[in-house]
Amino acid sequence: MTQEEEPLIPYRSVENYFATWESRVGYKLVLGGTRHHGYYKAGTKWPFPINPALRRMEDYLYNTLDLPPGSEVLDAGCGLCHVAMYFARKGLRVQGVDIVENHIRWAQRDIKAQGMEDKVSARVGNFQHLDHIPSGSLDGVFTMETFVHASNGKQVLSEFFRVLKPGGTLAMHEYWHVGDAEMPGDTPRDLIQSAKRVNKFGAMPTGELLTKGVMQQWLKDQGFMDIEEVNLSENIAPMSLFFCLLGYIPYLIICFFGLQAWFVNTEAGVQGYRALKRGLWGYASYKAKKPPKNISGEARLRRTG
Questions:
Q1: Catalytic residue among 4, 117, 145, 208
Q2: Would you write out the chain's pLDDT as a tens digit for each of its 305 residues?
Q3: Which residue in 188, 276, 281, 190 sits closest to 238, CA to CA?
Q4: 3-state secondary structure of 48
Q5: What pTM was estimated for this model as a whole?
Q6: Cβ atoms of residues 161 and 225 within 8 Å
Q7: Max CA distance (Å), the chain
Q8: Please, which residues have CB within 8 angstroms of residue 233's CB and are 6 or more apart in sequence?
Q9: 7: which DSSP letter?
Q10: Sign (positive/negative) of CA torsion 10, 233, 266, 37?
Q11: I need a labelling partner for 67 at 20 to 30 A (CA). Which of 37, 119, 183, 196 fits?
């Protein structure tokens, strides 16, 4: 393994994170097996019902891709293929890749059970090395809160660029956070410490690096153009509040015994909402295009919200 391929930060592995009891039970019971936030109209306080909010977030990502039926796309970090199968029902042809073997085994079972083998495929793999996908073969690539788990985000974006056709679309729903230099002086120390633990034990080395503006710069450096960012932080706030209320009492017990490293999702839920309200992190939808063969020049960046 070369130096460029090694994890940028020695964090818990993605496999170990998703294998924890807290992750397996929490994602199943709270989010029905999905791995992402829900979308709510700005100003919404009440987070229920949860499932429609999850579908709205998936619809938002689908609309960001904005590809016609029959388009070939990659779900990078597909998990159990919930999003992949949802997009396939809308007409896309989706291939998923995920580094966690159990995720792929369960995804393949569900794909077969729903008779979608001709529309969705899933395989074990690292989206940092997409050697099984020919260059310039895909109409779109998307991530749903999975890019943060990459050990080398720049390498991942390079692979996304390679496998896309000229004019192909990349759509990503990911987190950003305020860097140390921009951190307000009155930020509670426990929030700073919590953020570092969540990135470390939540297996998010690239997430640690995604301060404001970094994603746009990385995309530009890889050659993408028409880079867009839409701030969805307010749209996920109701679900963040739900996570906070759900985990508050358990978190007090966890802190009393010093077990934060073993219950990283609980800490992320409680402390994450506090940090979100302070503007210390946020949630964004990113869209970028691989230039057509006859287009070159500087990427154009647009931000909304």
A1: 145
A2: 333 444 444 456 898 999 898 998 889 888 888 989 999 999 999 999 999 999 999 999 999 999 999 999 999 999 999 999 999 999 999 999 999 999 999 999 999 999 999 999 999 999 999 999 999 999 999 999 999 999 999 999 999 999 999 999 999 999 999 999 999 999 999 999 999 999 999 999 999 999 999 999 999 999 999 999 999 999 999 999 999 999 999 999 999 999 999 999 999 999 999 999 999 999 999 999 999 986 654 455 665 65
A3: 276
A4: coil
A5: 0.92
A6: no
A7: 61
A8: 276, 279, 282, 283, 284, 305
A9: -
A10: negative
A11: 37
Tokens read off for 256: 């009393």
6 catalytic, yes or no? no
One-letter amino acid at 43 equals: G
Report CA-CA distances (Å) from 196 to 71, 97, 157, 173, 181. Answer: 39, 27, 24, 21, 15
d(CA 148, CA 153): 8
Tokens of 64: 């960001």
32 Cβ contact partners less than 8 Å away, ≥ 6 residues apart: 50, 51, 54, 82
Q: The tokens 């073993």 sit on which residue?
A: 262
Output the six-digit token pair for 25: 């039970």
Q: H-helix or E-strand containing 219?
A: helix 214-222
HEC string of 137-155? CEEEEEEECCHHHCCCHHH
